[in-house]
Amino acid sequence: MNIRICGTGSALPERKITNDDLSQIMDTSDEWISSRTGIKTRHLATEETTTSLATEAAKKALADADMKPEEVELIIAATVTPDHLVPTLSCEVQREIGAVNAVAFDLGAACSGFLFALSTAQAYIASGRFKNALLIGAEVLSKIMDWNDRSTCVLFGDGAGAAVVRADEENICHVVQGSDGAKGLVLACENRPVNNPYHKMESPLGYVSMNGQEVYKFAVRTVPATITKVLEEADLETEEISLFVLHQANLRIIEAVAKRLKQPMEKFPVNLTECGNISAASVPILLDNINRHGMIHRGDKVVLAGFGGGLTWGAAVLVW
Ligand code: ACO
């Protein structure tokens, strides 16, 4: 038993912030940000929450899949910025959409989160436990940014994407995943410190820190290798792939991956220009963009790839 994506949805906060807007509040410029990353604008939450964005994306994905909330059997939400530690984002979305028959849990794999959710759903569905799943990647990263650190805060945005997958005997979907905890601190965010009557730790609130050059090296080395591996496992040639839907961290990373795979940039859709990097939400938002713009057709072979904190990475090849 395999899976097919049969519906997508996405949601972005209303407030759009340009690079020039940022240059009004910190020492940066459109030239610095766009030449190094390709990012021009990002959407930042004001009234929106991770739950409200995830719910909107989930409702759109269910409508696109023509599926009623009560038919959903499994909800997996990938996020590093849930509104609460408990209840989880997936349970909050379950409540909001009325998916009363679903099992719901969250999964943390940073920017690879959506790929890890897809892989988990595929394994559950292959085992016969569930017949469908609602997968969500949602982040309000602006709440874990240090807005005094121009080297990180300009890179990220807020938003949510969702996809409905169903069991499909005919389809192919291969996934490769990896992790390297030893290099985790190149991209990190502290949680609350231990603080109880027997041990007190003074620690500032946790914000994202990153060694950009190490992340860049990791991405351009690992992503092409992972895509090559998943294509080998599926017995497919790179040329047979219609689109490569990559995590939207940085245009230079995407260009380097395209070059290493010897594929034209036209096969690599990009939305980081408008959205910035939205971690676990990047891949499902981009999937929804290409689905709604008619850039993908039934029978097309598509590669999805995520990479980021952990370190973690994953790639999937599937037929649309
Ligand atoms: N505006 C203006 N100047 C800045 C800014 C900014 N927003 N941020 C940093 N600078 C300055 C630095 O202070 C430094 O100045 P100095 O030379 O006077 O000390 C200079 O720019 C160069 O800083 P670097 O950190 O060396 O910049 P670099 O050229 O490496 O570019 C970048 C940074 C874009 C993050 C790059 O390392 C990169 O592409 N990394 C890939 C990682 C990535 O994209 N991560 C995204 C999130 S991770 C993920 O999703 C997997």
From TrEMBL:
Residues 105-181 form the Beta-ketoacyl-[acyl-carrier-protein] synthase III N-terminal domain. Its EC number is 2.3.1.180. Homodimer. It comes from Roseburia amylophila. Pathway: Lipid metabolism; fatty acid biosynthesis. The active site is at 111, 247, 277. Residues 231-320 form the Beta-ketoacyl-[acyl-carrier-protein] synthase III C-terminal domain. This is Beta-ketoacyl-[acyl-carrier-protein] synthase III. Catalyzes the condensation reaction of fatty acid synthesis by the addition to an acyl acceptor of two carbons from malonyl-ACP. Catalyzes the first condensation reaction which initiates fatty acid synthesis and may therefore play a role in governing the total rate of fatty acid production. Possesses both acetoacetyl-ACP synthase and acetyl transacylase activities. Its substrate specificity determines the biosynthesis of branched-chain and/or straight-chain of fatty acids. Keywords: Acyltransferase, Cytoplasm, Fatty acid biosynthesis, Fatty acid metabolism, Lipid biosynthesis, Lipid metabolism, Multifunctional enzyme, Transferase. Residues 248-252 are annotated as: ACP-binding. InterPro entries: ACP_syn_III_C, ACP_syn_III_N, FabH, Thiolase-like. It catalyses: malonyl-[ACP] + acetyl-CoA + H(+) = 3-oxobutanoyl-[ACP] + CO2 + CoA. The keyword Heme does not apply. Belongs to the thiolase-like superfamily. FabH family. It is found in: Cytoplasm.
